[in-house]
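A protein record pairs a chain with a discrete description of its three-dimensional fold. The following entry can be read in just this way:
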Amino acid sequence: MRILLLNQYYPPDLAPTGSVLHDLARDLQTRGHEIHVVCSRASYDSERLYSSEELIDDIHIHRISTLEFSKRHILSRFGSYASYFARTWSIMRKLPRPQCVVSLTTPPYIGLLGSYVSRRWNISHVSWVMDLYPDILQAHGLLNSKSIIYDALKRISSYFLNHSDLIVTLGPWMASRVDKYLTPGRHSTWIPLWATQDMAPWATGLRNSIREANRWGPEELVIMYSGNMGLGHTFDDILWAAQKIGRSGVRWVFSGGGRRHDEIKKFASSHPELPIDLLPYARPVQLREHLSAADLHLVTLHQSWQGLMVPSKIHAIFALGKPVLYVGGSENEIASWIREAKAGWVVNQGDREELLKAIDESRDPSTRRQKGESAARFAKAHFSQQTNCNRISQSLEKLL
């Protein structure tokens, strides 16, 4: 079976959606399928261009040049997305015709193109939902839910979702939100993402060069936020706690980038007395050691974004056997998994006293170790790359 995968980013780019798509592509390829990927030549950070044609793990990569604008302005983003749509369609017409097309949700509404070609070529279409639009735009206050534009975008989402032969979401809360777009009797299925197979717990006592290079002391409680600091995350309570705690044995590490990175950078600059380190995105070859350097991992999700996305780093953190401090809404996959696994602390957004209490409890190494071990057991049972990739691959094969 020839399968076409559509997503804006793909390895060697660092974008998480591209990484998990490559995991699925490799699984499908080893099952005997011919895999083609159409993605952008531009990297997620817009700082480099990749080759237009490449073969990675016997997967055919077709990269297109698009008009790249600043990611800081919504109109600029839509200009880049429109360019991606047009050039994706242009190259798709030149490729061998697939039997199935799988579309992710970067850029938004790429599923509309997947739906179009599936009807035109009489092939199967699968929507793999990583982010739910236009709900995300409404959650951030960029669109009013009663506006004409919101209604139009909602109709577009409903159209291509209802014309998908299979809809895969990342968790039960996201599935519930997606199902509201579907006609009666239709339902999405949810399959969690996964940690890559190299994400095994760091051996006790093993030297960690990243911790040493940053001079994080053995007695310090290193609380790390690693990854995208995007619009769906919340940092107000965290930064308040950093200022409240001061220099009492807690070091805050923010590694990555994103739309909210400047807020944290500005806060750190205005409070030079606080132990705050700002680091770039971790390189893939160092990701395991980088995440293992922390004592406690910070994950946030703004309460208005619940069910709209599931931060992918949670799977790697669990697999590494690291405890999690979560701040945000309480009705979502992240909060549910942490509570079920007893893998950390869930703090409701705005409950600052509870946040301080959780940080105080996390200072105990034995408590962190117990919660980390629980996280690792949960990841082994629920976030297996082999198992979850296999579930998606089998679902695709059943379509045909």
Remarks:
- The chain has a mean pLDDT of 93.
- The longest helix spans residues 74-92.
- The CA atoms of residues 2 and 96 lie 8 Å apart.
